[in-house]
Amino acid sequence: MQKNIIIAGVGGQGILSIAAIIDWAALEMGLNIKQAEVHGMSQRGGAVQSHLRISDQEIFSDLIPLNGADIIISVEPMEALRYLPFLSKEGQVVTATDEFKNIGNYPHSEGLITEIKKIKNHVLVDIKTITCEIGNHKAGNILMLGASAPYLGIDVELLKRGIRTLFERKGEEIVNSNIKAFEKGMEISSAIKQ
Amino acid sequence: MSKQLLLGAEAVAQGAIDAGISGVYAYPGTPSTEITAYIQLSEEGKAGKIRSTWSANEKTAYEAALGMSYAGKRALVCMKHVGLNVAADAFINSAITGVNGGMVVTVADDPSMHSSQNEQDTRVYGKFAMVPVCEPANQQELYNSIFYAFNLSEEIKLPVIVRITTRLSHSRSGVQQVEKQTAQNELSPEVDGKKFVLLPGIARKRYDNLVNIQPNLENFSEKSPLNKLIEGGSNNVGVIAFGIAYNYTMEVREKYNLDFSVLKIGQYPLPRKMINDFFDANKQILIAEEGYPVYEELMRGYFNNNKIKGRLDNTLPRTGELDVDSIAKALGVELEESTAVPSIVAMRPPALCKGCGHQDVFQAMNMVLNETSKHVFSDIGCYTLGALPPYNAISSCVDMGASVTMAKGASDAGLRPAVAVIGDSTFTHSGITGLLDAVNDKSPLTLIISDNDTTAMTGGQDSSGTGKIGQICMGIGVEKEHIRMIVPLKNNLEENVKIMKEEFEYEGVSVIIANRECIQTAIKKRRVK
């Protein structure tokens, strides 16, 4: 088993908590992990990404080669496109459609969506609408994790336990709304998969 | 104990804790900051068993670590690559004096300049000072090599460098810790009364000692666990893979099912015998180094040994980080074409945070300074982003503290107004002495200290001048009435513009301290509450 995952977003959007939960579950499964992160200057509102590699074999490189990613998980639509050179031909893109506009020349929404729809395998998630329904506007990451779950090759129950572990100290209510977000995400992808 | 998922930087920290250090000394700098931060938050750090607060700069950090070593205890000093430039005087001479308690210097290089001004290679400093350098390839090896480096340092009585790069420092992987920590050394100050006194007569003897010990250092490399041969079936080409380049090389070997031999190098000086044998056994050699082509140049020689391929003949890219694809290409693998980034995708560079006080400083300053004659010397920190639109506010960023002294030089040349912008942490790191020069010379300049009470760029570490900036300026002789305190807020814009205008026109040294807490640390504090 080997999965190469790119998680993308903008500094401050909290992509590392998505990674942390996948890590936790993969460790429980006894798999090897390498996870390259971005720290420092780019964290100030710049484009950030994490290369996450999971395998039952030894992993050498901390970086995923070009055409090597099985999945790109992005919490922002333009950021999903930035890493396309890394996506394998049969790779999956799971991206939010919620735009993060902190630059003057941010492209038009229709253009972005057109480009994303050109990708063979893609799932689009409207974070704002769904997290509003759930009543936890901070659960966008976990919603995206849920939407990615069918493609990760990781036990879903373990991912849920990972969510519990991460949010435990914030109380039962937060845990439950995040689990709900996760399940909602899974529903979206499962519907598309069928 | 089960495996822990650690960043490379954290593996250094945990290794050092487990190897029995009594102190860590550092100034924050990407990609090295997390080492010290981890120790500060560890049980040992919090209990004060390991001394771990931030130093004013890399030189003070290095010298304090050397003092701890003199006293017989183990000390870790860490910095980013350019930090070693600041500490270089102490570093080079500490190879001449030697050490007493184990001393490990962890330097984090930043090839591809993710968060830096250059991609200098610390291995050059290792050669320059003639001390051993360890360059592990993965997080577990990094953890283990910290023990190894401390033991080696105490055995050969020299500081030992552990060189890491961004990719290793900022990547997580499982690390197996030792069961039992090494106890800290007892206090046992240096007994040789001369060793640390580098008067020329003594220094010559100490230098002889350093030169004479070099063959011994090579012997350590020959049997180092960090250097090993992976034998292949084909001898058409062999790869000498240094440090993290080993990972990429091994992945290419597996991914494309190639059968070349690999000589993994993780400790310097080079193990000459291993290298000789590998050269003899292979028809062609690819040298894969993360950083400068330091050893490629050495092995290629002045007469250009054409058996060697690498960065210098563009078989590998001359600059930037290596990766699996660049090494595959260098070995003749035809790469599958990858999808291009759609042209609609715009660059998203880092930017100042919403509500950041630096923005208000730049806004006011831009209103005072005439667009055409604007020359503002600045420095290294979040405010360097003031160079980008919409501010376009600064004209320089060279090295820590250079804003003050460059403004002084330009002022001496006749530039008016000579304006410098520096952060509080950079000011105490390397700006104070420059300001003293300006005061002594009465060079007309205005120094704006954009003081956010923290070392913000690296994530909000304590800043050594917090609450003391005004007193420091007064203490080195800036006139009291030309030390102006402002609060960079929208509501104060008019008043701040007026104050800047007055001070820019003053024919002497003036300082404007623009103090408002960093928005990120303010948010963090609120969360903790």
Output the helix-strand order of chain A: EHEEEHEHEHHHH
> Please, how many helices of chain B?
21
| Count of discrete domains of chain A | 1
Task: Please give the CATH class of the largest domain in chain B.
Answer: Alpha Beta
* Biggest beta-sheet profile of chain A: 6 strands, mixed
Radius of gyration of chain A (CA) equals 16 Å
Largest sheet of chain B: 6 strands, mixed
Average pLDDT rating of chain A: 94
N- to C-terminal separation of chain A? 23 Å
Strand content of chain B: 15-25%
The name of the CATH topology of chain A is Pyruvate-ferredoxin Oxidoreductase, domain 3
CATH superfamily of the largest domain in chain B: Thiamin diphosphate (ThDP)-binding fold, Pyr/PP domains
Low-confidence stretches of chain A: none
Low-confidence stretches of chain B: none
Give your account of this protein's structure:
- The complex is a heterodimer of chains A (194) and B (529).
- Chain A is 41% helix and 23% strand.
- With 194 residues, chain A is of the alpha/beta class.
- Chain A has one domain: Pyruvate-ferredoxin Oxidoreductase, domain 3, CATH 3.40.920.
- Chain A has a six-stranded mixed β-sheet with strand order 2-3-1-4-5-6.
- The two termini of chain A are 23 Å apart.
- Chain B is of the alpha/beta class.
- Chain B folds into three domains: 4-187 and 196-212, Thiamin diphosphate (ThDP)-binding fold, Pyr/PP domains (Rossmann fold); 228-330, Rossmann fold; 357-525, Rossmann fold, CATH 3.40.50.970.
- Chain B is built from 21 helices and 18 strands.
- In chain B, helix 1 (8-18) packs across helix 2 (33-41) and helix 17 (402-412) packs parallel to helix 18 (424-441).
- The longest helix of chain B is centred in the first third of the chain and has 18 residues, at 139-156.
- The two termini of chain B are 34 Å apart.
- In chain B, 53% of the residues are buried.
- The model of chain B has no long low-confidence stretch (mean pLDDT 96).
- Chains A and B meet through strand 2, helix 2 and helix 3 of A and strand 7, helix 12 and helix 15 of B.
- Strand 2 (32-36) of chain A pairs antiparallel with strand 7 of chain B.
